[in-house]
Amino acid sequence: MSDHQWEFAERVGRVEPSATVAVSNKASALEEEGVDVVDLSVGEPDFPTPERVREAGREAIADGHTGYTSSNGIRELREAISTDLKAKNVPAEPDNVVVTPGAKQALFETVQALIDEGDEVILLDPAWVSYEAMVKLAGGELTRVDLGEHEFELEPALDDLAAAMSDETALLLVNSPSNPTGAVFSDEALAGVRDLAVEHDVTVVADEIYDRITYDAKPTSLASFDGMADRTVTVNGFSKSYAMTGWRLGYLAAPEPLVDQVSKIHSHSVTCAANFVQRAGVEALRSVESDVATMVKAFEQRRDLVVDLLADHGKSIPEPQGAFYAMIPTDDDDVAWTDAAIEDAHVATVPGSAFNAPGYARISYAASEERLKEGFERLAAEGLL
Predict the structure, then answer these.
(1) Could you give the dihedral angle defined by the CA atoms of residues 84, 87, 90 and 92, in that order, rounded to the nearest 10 degrees?
(2) SS3 123
(3) 385: Cβ–Cβ under 8 A, 6 or more apart, which residues?
(4) Who contacts 260 (Cβ-Cβ below 8 Å, separation ≥6)?
(5) Which of 208, 303, 231, 246 lies closest to 48, judged by CA?
(6) HSE on the CB side for 320, CA within 13 Å?
(7) What is the sign, positive or negative, of the torsion defined by CA atoms of 46, 48, 49, 52?
(8) Predicted pLDDT at 40
(9) At what angle do helices 103-114 and 129-138 cross, to 10 degrees?
(10) How far apart are CA 113 and CA 205, in angstroms?
C-alpha cells in the first residue's frame, strides 16, 4: 500500500465534474444493471452521422490520412469553414480559423488565451455548464445576468446586461441558439450586445454550435454586426448539426491576434484534430444539408410534442426556437426532483441548478417520440408532473 500523499492544483478544486456527464453516467450505470432508462439528459442527436460523411471518413483512412495535420487544421477544411462563415456575413478567412477536437476545446482554448486571474467574465443565465468551469480554471471571476425572469430572452434583459458590463469586463459569452433553453436571441438583442461591447471595448465569444437547428427563428451571427468582427470569437462545430458527436470536430474563427495566441495553446495541448475526421468535416459542409434538414424537421416535431405533453399536465414553457432542449419547471428543489426522476421514474434529466437556473430541469428531446411519451408517462406516474 502506497503512502504517497497527493496534493492537487488549487484550480482543480474550483470546479465540479460536468453535471450533464454525471447524469449520463448514472443512466449508463442503471442500464448496465438491466434497468430501462429513458435518457433525456444528453445533448446528442439520436440520428446516425450522414452516410456521405461516414464514407468520407472511411475513404480518408483508406487513403492513409491518419497522421498529423498542420496544427490549425487542413487548408481544405479551413477554406470550407471560411466559405460557410462568409455565407453568414462573418468575414473570416481560412487563416482566421483554428480547427479543434470539438467546439468545447475551442471554447477552452479561447478562455485560456484571454482570461487572467481575477478577470471578469459575464455569463447569460441559464448557461451551459462548462462555461463556468472553463472560466474558473483560468482564474476568472463570474458576473451573471439572469434571463429567467424574461422567459429566457435576452432583449428584455439588455438593461440588466448594461448594468453588469463595464470597462473592466474582459469577456462576454453569448450562446444562441441556447443550451439549455433553446432560445434564439433576436437581432435587436444582438445589436444591443454590439452597442455595449463597442462602448466598453469587450471581447465577445459567440457560441453558435446549434445555429443550423432552429424552428421559428433565424439566427444571426454576432460577428456579422457592424463593429463586431474585430472583437468576436465565433465558435461552432459539427457534433450537433451533423450528428458527429463522437468524431470530435469543432472550430473557432477570430481575428489573427487571437488566433496566434490560441494556436500556441492548441499546439501544446491537442496538437491537431484527427486528420481523417477533418476530411469528413469537409464533406459535411459541402454535401449533407438535406440530411440536416431532415433531422431539424424531426426535432421540431418533437419540440411540439414536448410542449403539448407539458400542457396536458398543466405546465406551460417558453417554446424553444432552436437546439433540442426544454426547461421544465420543477418544485423548488430541482436536484431532488431530478434524483427522483432517475431513481423512481427511470428518466434521466439534468437539474437546472447546473445551469444556474434552480427550479427547472433540462430535458433533451433528441430522442424518439415514442421514448419521449414513455418518459413523460413515467414522470407523471411518479407525481413529478
Answers:
(1) 50
(2) strand
(3) 310, 313, 315, 376, 379
(4) none
(5) 246
(6) 32
(7) negative
(8) 95
(9) 30
(10) 12
Query: Cα-atom radius of gyration of the chain, to the nearest Å?
Result: 21
Provide the pLDDT for residue 229.
97
CA distance 318 to 291: 28
pLDDT of amino acid 170: 98
Mean pLDDT for 176-186 is: 98
Grid coordinates belonging to 339: 434524483
Supply 337's cell numbers. 426532483
Rounded mean pLDDT, 142-168 = 97
Give residue 1's pLDDT: 61
Q: ∠ at Cα 141 (136, 143), nearest 5°?
A: 120
Q: Between 141 and 20, name the one with better pLDDT.
A: 141
| Residue 257 pLDDT | 98
102 vs 248: CA distance, rounded Å:
4
- The values of phi and psi at residue 312, to 5°, are -60, -25
Contact 115, 172 (CB under 8 A): no
Return the higher-pLDDT residue of 91 and 18.
91
Give the integer Cα–Cα distance in Å for 352 and 338: 9
DSSP 163-200: HH--TTEEEEEEESS-TTT-----HHHHHHHHHHHHHH
Quote the cell numbers at residue 97: 480559423
